[in-house]
Amino acid sequence: MTRIKGGVMAQKRRKNILERAKGYRGIRSKKERYAHEALMRAGRYAFAHRRDKKTDFRQVWIVRLNAAVRETGHKSYSTFIAKLKKSGFALDRKVLAQFASDHPEIFARISKQVV
Asked: What pTM did the predictor assign?
C-alpha cells in the first residue's frame, strides 16, 4: 500500500483553529497551540455559562415578581407563590414577571384572585 501523508488535512485543521480564534488577543490568535488552548477554554466557559444564564434569569424574574407582589398588597414573594400554587394557577415565574413589568393591570387581576 502506498504511504499517505497528512499535510493537507493538518493544514486544514490548523487553518480552522486559527479562523475560530480570530479576534483573540495577542498570541492566542496567531499560534496554533495557544489558539487551541484558548478555544478549549472558551468552549468550557460557554457550556457552563449557558447553564448559569438560566439561573440568572430566574433570579431576575423573582426580584421583579417580589417588587410587583409587594405593590399589590401581598406580604412577600414566597407567600404569593405558595398561594398561587394552592389556587391552581399554572403560570410560571417567567410569564408572571412579564405580566408584572409589561402588563401591570393583568398582574393586578391575577394577584387579586390569589388570596
From this structure: 0.72
